[in-house]
Amino acid sequence: MGEPAIVVEGLEKRFGEVPALDGIDLSVDEGTIFGLLGPNGAGKTTAVRVLATILHPDAGRAEVLGRDVVREPAAVRRRIGLAGQYAAVDPNLTGRENLRMVGILGQLPRAVIAPRADELLQRFSLADAADRPLRTYSGGMRRRLDIAASLVPKPPVLFLDEPTTGLDLTSRNELWDMIRELVREGTTVLLTTQYLEEADQLAGRVAVIDGGHVIANDTPARLKANLGDTVVEMDFADDALAERALALLGGDQLGTVEREHRTVKVSSNRGAHVLVDVLRRFDGDGIEPDTLSVREPSLDDVFLALTGHRAVTEGGDA
Amino acid sequence: MSVPAVETSMDVALDRHIPMGVVRDTAAIVQRNLIAYRRVPQLLVFSTIQPVIFVVMFRYVFGGAVSAALPAGVDYVDYLMPGIFVQTVVFGAIATAIGLATDMKSGLMERFHALPMARSAVLSGRTLADTVRNVFVVALMMLVGFLVGWRIHTDVLGLLAAYGIVVLFGFSMSWVFATVGLAVGDPETAQAASFPVLAPLVFASSAFVPIETMPPWLQTFAEHQPVSAAASAVRALTLGGPAAGDVIASIAWSVGLIAIFGTISVRLYRRAV
Fold first, then answer.
1. ipTM of predicted assembly, 2 dp
2. Same structural domain, A83 and A165
C-alpha cells in the first residue's frame, strides 16, 4: 500500500477564541473509505476545509498524496474533489454546463471535457435532466450533480462532507452504492457524517470527533462491539420506578443496562429477542414503562459509551 | 517528517499545464455569469428599467426647473443623458456585489477555492461579465436618449470615446462593489450596503444638475469625485468644446479605482470563503 493517501498530524484551527480543531491526528490508506463521525460543531467540516486548502491551519500539518496543504496547495487541488452538504453548484446553469465549467476550471484538456461530462451524467442518472437549469432539480438530483461535479477531473482523493444529510432513503442508498463503486475503482474517500449507520455501512475505519478532538479511531465493528446490535430504550414515570426496572433487568444476561434519570437503556447482541426478555421480566413484577422503543445503536450511543456524555450539538456547523 | 513526493505517471497527468490557463478560467466564469443574465432576465430588467424611469423623471419632471441653471444654449436633455449613462453603470455595479455575495453564501466560492483554477478568475470573471452587460445596457440607454431628444453635437468619434469612458468607468465601479460584496458576504446585506456607497456618489455630483447651486461644502465634494469626472468627460465629448482635461481626469479616476479596489477585493477573496 505504501504511503497513506491522507496524513494529518497535530492539526489545530481556531476561530477567534474557539478551537474548532484541537490537535487532530489521522491517517487514511489509499483506496479506502475513512469516516469522520461526530455531531454538528465537532470540527468535521473544518478538518475537510483544511484538507481541501480552503482554510489555513494554525498549527500541525496535513498532506494529501504526499503534498502539503499549506506549502503546495496548487498540487493538492489537482488531486482532490470536494462535495459539500450545501450543494455548491450554479443554479442558473444546466447540469451539463455545470460539469463542463468544472472540467475547464479543473484544468482538463478541452477534448476530454464533453465526453467526461456525458459519462458522469449517465452514471448519476441525470442524463434526462442534463439540459435543464439546476433550479428545476430536486434536492437528491442536486446532490448527485454536486458529487458528479467533484468527480469531473477524476481526483484520486475525494472529500464528501455529509453527503447524505437531508436525503430520502432511496437517494441515500443510491449515493452509498456510487461511493462504494468509486472506491472499487481506486479512489480514496474521506467522508464526514452524523450517522453511525452511514459510517458503519461505508467506512473501513472511523474516527469519532468531539469538540475538535479525535476521541476514538477504530473499525466500525470494534466501535460497535460493546454497543450491541439492538437498543431498547424506555422512559418511566419517575426515578424510583426507573431504578426498580434497572434492578430487574440487570445481571448481564440481557446485555449492558444503563439508567439516566427516568430513562433505562438496554444494549444487547441478541437482536429483537431481547425485547421479549425485557417484557417478561416486567410482567413478573407488574411495572410498565411510559414509552418503549427498539432501535439500532446511534451516534449518541457511541458518544455515551466513549465519553459518558451525550453528543452535544453546538450552534452552527464548524 | 515529510518525504518528497515521488513523481509517477499519475502525477504527470494531474500536474499537466494548460497554456493560457488564466484566460481559459476567466472566460469560463464570464460565460457562466452571462448565462445567468440570459436565464434570469429580471437581473437585466433591474439595470434598465430604473435608468429609464430616471430619464423620464428628470427630463420631464425636473427638467424645466433645472434648465434655468444651465449655460445658455445647452438643452437639459443634452446635459442629462451623459449623467444618466454614468449613473446607469454605477447602479448596475450593485449586481457585482450581489453576485459575489451570492456565490459566497451558496458555497460555490468554496468549490472554486478547492479547484486548481486561477485565483483571479472568480473576481475578474464577474467584473468582466458585468462590463459586457454594461456594453449592452449603455447602448440601450443611448437609444432611449435619442427617443427623448438627446442629440450629439460632435461626431461619431466623440460618441465612441464617450461610450468607452462610460464602460471603463463601469468596470472600475464593479471592482468597488466587488469589494462591498466580498466584505459583507450575503446578498441581502450586499444590496443594503451598496446604496449608502452609491447614493452620495451619484446624487452629490454633476450627473443630473449643475453643481453651482449646491452649498459650497457640497460643491467641493461634488467637484472632486469620480461620477462628476465621468459625467463631465462624456458631456464634453458629446456637447463639444475642450474635452482632453475631463477625459484624462475620468480615465485617471477609473484606473486608480481599479488598482485600489482590485487589490483590496483580491485580498478579501483569498481570505473569504
1. 0.87
2. yes
